[in-house]
């Protein structure tokens, strides 16, 4: 499962193709792993919050896990 392709298909419209948040600090994911754990990231992806829609039901659980692993490594 390729996390980057999942991100490109589902996340860059808000988070930007370089994950810079398109200038919005709260959407910047470039070092999100330094702030949130893998479980916190997966929870955010699934349930949304703080302006982000939830993707539970839109992404398969294994896709959420792959993206959370990938983002958690960004520190």
UniProtKB/TrEMBL annotation:
Boundaries of every Cytochrome c domain copy: 1-75
Q: Is the keyword Iron assigned to this protein?
A: yes
Q: Which GO terms describe its molecular function?
A: electron transfer activity; heme binding; iron ion binding
Q: Name one Pfam family in it.
A: Cytochrome_CBB3
Presence of keyword Ribosomal protein = no
Superkingdom field = Bacteria
The record's listing under Gene3D superfamilies reads:
Cytochrome c-like domain
InterPro entries attached to this UniProt entry = Cyt_c-like_dom, Cyt_c-like_dom_sf, Cyt_C_IC, Cytochrome_c550/c551-like
Q: Which UniProt keywords apply?
A: Electron transport, Heme, Iron, Metal-binding, Transport
Any idea what this protein is called?
Cytochrome c
Organism, scientific name: Paenibacillus cremeus
């Amino acid at each position: 499962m390729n996390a980057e392709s999942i991100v490109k298909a589902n996340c860059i419209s808000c988070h930007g193709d370089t994950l810079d948040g398109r200038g919005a600090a709260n959407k910047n994911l470039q070092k999100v792993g330094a702030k949130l754990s893998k479980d916190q990231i997966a929870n955010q992806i699934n349930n949304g919050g703080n302006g982000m829609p939830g993707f539970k039901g839109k992404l398969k659980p294994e896709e959420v896990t792959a993206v959370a692993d990938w983002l958690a490594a960004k520190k």
